[in-house]
Write a structure and sequence with these properties.
Shape: elongated
Strand content: 5-15%
Number of helices: 6
Distance between the termini: 102 Å
Radius of gyration: 41 Å
Amino acid sequence: MVRWGGVRCEGGACLPPHPLWNALVAMVTRCPTWQHPDLSLHSQRLSLLLLLLLLLPGPPTTPGMEDTAFPHLGESSQPLPRACPLRCSCPRADTVDCDGLDLRVFPHNITREVQHLSLQNNQLQELPYNELSRLSGLQTLNLHNNLISSEGLPDEAFESLTQLQHIYLAHNKLSVAPQFLPRSLRVADLAANQVTEIFPLTFGEKPALRSVYLHNNQLSNAGLPPDAFHCSEALTTLSLSNNQLSYLPPSLPPSLEQLHLQNNLISKVPRGALSRQIHLRELYLQHNQLTDSGLDATTFSKLHRLEYLDLSHNQLATVPAGLPRTLAVLHLGRNRIQQVEAARLRGARGLRYLLLQNNQLGAAGLPAGVLRPLRGLHTLHVYGNRLERVPLALPRRLRSLVLPHNRVAALGAGDLAATPRLAELNLAYNNLVSARVHHQAFRPLRALLNLDLAGNQLTRVPTGLPTGLHTLQLQRNQLRALDPEPLAGLDQLRELSLAYNQIRVGDIEPGTWHELKALQVRGRLVSHTDCPQAVPMALR
């Protein structure tokens, strides 16, 4: 294309000059003010014509002849605004957020470039395939908390989403899982639906899949195929809790690190079901129907990295055998265990937390020294049993001993001597009486910070209490008097609870509070109106 002298020529065709061109040329040739004595008439005209040639826009063009190299008059060089579905927000070019808008229909004008789409907390009942198939670059699809049923989810719904990594379908109305999910998937959340069946390609053949959440559904073993996770060897977290499984599913991926199976109907773990799970660190089997016959000596023996095992709320009568050395937390609360055998814990030398609350441990339930091999044991919970005395020869490094709601009636001079590092001792709601608590029973506990003796039958404050004590719980006993001697030296005591005893104002001897300089919280003893000045304000 060539412009010259106002004439526009392109492809061998020339258009007439713009009308303003002719008018300006005539003005230049006739106007005397443009003459200069030092220049020839020809030079003056030529200079002006060149200036006009540069400044004057070309003539109107015919359709199809536009010059696209330059913006037209009135045209903006700014990009057009991005399309965003009505009422939704699009904070970035690749993100569409339609959370909580009460939508009943899938938005139709979502940009093809979207990578992250949130439609959670709406009223969607179905996903149209023609809309989803356009979004081939989608990486995150959040459909949490809608009304989507399996009938509203086509079998091919996700086949075009070849880059999808995260899908959230929890809290919908699915009765079966999608038959196919993309191979690129990393996280799948189908929790809190009504799923009774999954398929081989729902979670199988997913080399990048790391987390699957299927809790709070209606899955039975029949709805979980043996190859459900075939070739998904990166899976680390699997949640199948709150379903209807009757036994531990076989052929689970060996890559698992966390396995949630609580709140099912599991009565047995088939032999070898966990033999390949060498990376498993946490196993949750509480609230099932496990009995001793449902486990064997090899059930947990191959789990060489297991750290947390929860078997509470089952029907076990003994501690399981074959526990791995790496185990740090063993939760056996609310079973039917009557006695702990040393041989059952021999392998679990690394145990730090042993929880045996609400079992049937009687007088011989914890024989002397049975826990001594657990040298690293930090916490022992045995509340809600039938123990008649504090277990003897406990591990020396024990820091927390929790024994409320048992039948302990006496404390001898050496009953606690084996645990000098104890920081917390809870003997609340036992049968302790002052006459059977030796005056040196607590003296070995130099590191003790918290002592709970509430709900016993004590008539006086025990003597020989550790001087570093921070809290002392004595409420709901039968205390009748307070004197300075038992509280002498407790200058770090911060909390003293004496509520619901039989102490009267006249039974508090002078000087009782003298050394309790750090005391901050105290149980009320008497009414405010009758309280003498000797009693600290917080006790009134």
